[in-house]
Amino acid sequence: MSEPKKVIMLGNEAIARGAYEAGVKVSAAYPGTPSTEISEYLVQYKDEVYCEWSPNEKVATEVAVGASLAGTRAMSCMKHVGFNVAADPAYSVSYMGVNGGLVIVVADDPGLYSSQNEQDTRMVARAAKLPVVEPSDSNEAKEYLKMAFELSEQFDRPFVFRTTTRLAHSQGIVELGERRTPEDKPYVKDIRRTVMMPGNAKLRHVEIEKRNQELAGAADTHPINRVEMKDTKIGVITSGIPYQYVKEALPEASVCKLGMVNPLPRKLIEEFAAKVETLYIVEELDPVIEEQVKAWGISCVGKEIFTVQGEYSANMIRQAILGEALKIQTPAEVVGRPPILCPGCPHRSVYHVLSKLKLHVAGDIGCYTLGAVPPLSAVDTTMCMGSSISTLHGMEKAKGKDYVKNWVAAIGDSTFLHTGINSLMNMVYNQASGTVMILDNSTTGMTGHQDHAATGKTLMGDPTHAVDIPKLCRAVGVPSVRVVNAFDIEELEKTVQEELAKDQVSVIITKSPCVLLSKEKKPLYTVHEDRCRKCGMCMKPGCPAMTKNEDGTIRIDDTMCTGCGLCEKLCRFGAIELVKDGDR
Predict the structure, then answer these.
(1) Which of 219, 263, 461, 529 could disulfide-link to 553, CB 3.0 to 4.6 Å?
(2) Is residue 322 pLDDT above 50, yes or no?
């Protein structure tokens, strides 16, 4: 008998492998860092698993619920803020229960590497009365996901599978197993559990409380939770990635490692607490475990010495518990590199025009959020997916039509289809007059160029109908919809001024694909230094391919130039010229 194959996998890749081995048949997701790669790895098993990019996380969760009700194992994947979008079906399916196993994978982002907040998914899941499983390394990510499906079916509960940025993007050794697909469960009509009207929901609430109590009892002996007894002077309750930090910082401490963080194994925790002199709770973000342990009357130390912000580390834990100084080497001096738009990004020319017109911009979530930082400094607000349009609408209703004559809403094509379309319908329905700009770069750019409903291609790689965004805008009643090349700055400026002057809802679609989508050779521009007047106009958009020489003239880095031509359009003296067209 051959030894099981072991490979090195990212946490996200291991989650995908776990779904495959668990016999998942349907997976639906919306891309969001740090969860995006789960679906991109899972699609390699597309002969056995159906995978899709859904328009948003609510839809993705509802798709997974439908597959579960039909009797197959299913999951949806998202980042933590996407779980907010999925909250409506998540709270209700908690009452409904499952047929085939159902898991909602949610990736939190302690440290705010790519998110607008640090919310803790465990808090949301507790409110929805959903059980939560959390792994601490890649192999556990695979194995715990399989356990989550088994527990989901055993206890008739949808499960939340919580991961974090550090786990999602760290590598570990994973032992591969075979795919085991359970037989599809027959669908049996039972409206008392699947139709959530008040009379049924009241009865289901009683049932899920009973199920959660049964699950809490099982958690005391389930191998997903374990105790590692060593020196009893220090005892630590922890879970997820912080477990790795605890083992490094306190190798001799006794540890109660929780793989299921909701519901908690009360008996296991009480017995562990009784064996140690001082009990610490080590958990990133909110004191979810700590508050419950203290509510049981167990003395412990938690957020008195640990922060509720950001990622933890072994050094931080060592200092907090043992009082040892942080072992941090002084880093070498590194030039600061704030995030900027890529060379040749079509959003840069759009923001240049908006800045030139001295307009305010209600922004949204995507690459174009970077328009808020210097030198463009064009974006005024960014809150959440689809919020730009609603924010603009609220401003108009608060201050009148004249107030928004110097405002526009800016949103990307993927985000527009995610939740922006609802806000645009609201503007039309409630007789607004603002101008919405859809920055259409033909992809979901910020998360790594995933397809969406308007690109004409599915996650499975199949050609499909592409939503026509201009026609969609007209279909919801927008009277003025105009499409402009993002790099035609003269036409764009004229169009923006004309649309802002109208007392009606208008949409301007700047249509230019993300420069990173094309594999073709790019044209190349150069600077004739003898013609350069050092006016700095070409530098205003902040293209990283443009730099100044010591004498103040401009130089274009031909390794970075993508040939967008924006600099040539801005130069009034003919100093910038196309020297090679698609042949470097």
Answers:
(1) 529
(2) yes
Query: How many Å apart are CA 522 and CA 250, to the nearest integer?
Result: 54
Nearest CA to 292 among 118, 122, 152?
122
Residue keyed to tokens 């047929």: 99
Tens-place pLDDT, residues 437-479: 999 998 988 888 999 999 999 999 999 999 999 999 999 999 9
Q: Is the dihedral of CA 96, 97, 103, 108 positive or negative?
A: positive
Taking the CA of residue 538 as centre, how many other CA atoms within 13 Å lie in the half-sphere pointing to its CB?
31
Residues 475-510: pLDDT tens digits?
Answer: 999 999 999 999 999 999 999 999 999 999 999 999
Instruction: Quote the CA–CA distance of 366 and 349 in Å, as a whole number.
Output: 16
Which residue type, as a one-letter code, is found at position 454? Answer: A
- Residue 305, by phi and psi: left (phi above 0), alpha (psi -120 to 50) or beta? alpha
Q: Please tell me the distance from the alpha carbon of residue 259 to that of residue 242, in angstroms, as a whole number.
A: 12
Token reading at 151: 């527990």
For residues 291 and 268, give the distance between their C-alpha atoms in angstroms, rounded to a whole number: 16
pLDDT tens, residue by residue, 233-281: 999 999 999 999 999 999 999 999 999 999 999 999 999 999 999 999 9
Q: Are 32 and 447 contacting, i.e. CB atoms less than 8 angstroms apart?
A: yes
Output the six-digit token pair for 56.
């948003």
Structure tokens that stand for 229 in this block: 């007894």
Report how far residue 30's alpha carbon sits from residue 20's, in angstroms, rounded to the nearest whole number: 19
Q: Which of these, 311, 302, 346, 136, lies nearest to 224 by C-alpha position?
A: 136
Return the SS3 of 505. coil
CB 310 within 8 A of CB 289: no
pTM of the model: 0.92
Q: What is the largest CA-CA distance in the chain?
A: 82
Question: Cα–Cα distances in Å, from 288 out to 281, 283, 291?
Answer: 10, 8, 6
Locate the DSSP E strands across 165-214. Answer: 171-175
- 361, 354 Cβ separation under 8 angstroms: yes
How do residues 359-386 score in pLDDT, each as one tens digit? 999 999 998 899 898 888 899 999 999 9
Three-state SS for 312-374 is CCHHHHHHHHHCCCCCCCCCCCCCCCCCCCCCCCHHHHHHHHHHHCCCEEECCCCHHHHHHCC
- CB contact set of 69 (below 8 Å; sequence gap of 6+): 98, 99, 100, 187, 194
> 431: left (phi > 0), else alpha (psi -120 to 50), else beta?
left
Given a contact cutoff of 8 angstroms between Cβ atoms, the answer to whether 480 and 502 are in contact is: yes
CB burial class (10 A; 0-12, 13-18, 19+) of residue 213?
A: exposed
How high is the pLDDT of residue 584? Answer: 45
414 contact partners, CB below 8 Å, separation of at least 6: 366, 443, 444, 445, 450, 452, 454
The DSSP line for 363-413 is --SSGGGGGGSTTT--EEE--STTHHHHHHHHHHHHH-GGGGGGEEEEEEH
Pairing type for strands 159-164 and 102-108 reads parallel
Residue 394 makes CB contacts below 8 A (sequence gap 6+) with none
Q: How far apart are CA 225 and CA 206, in angstroms?
A: 26
Question: Which among 147, 282, 163, 275 is positioned nearest to 215, based on CA atoms?
Answer: 147
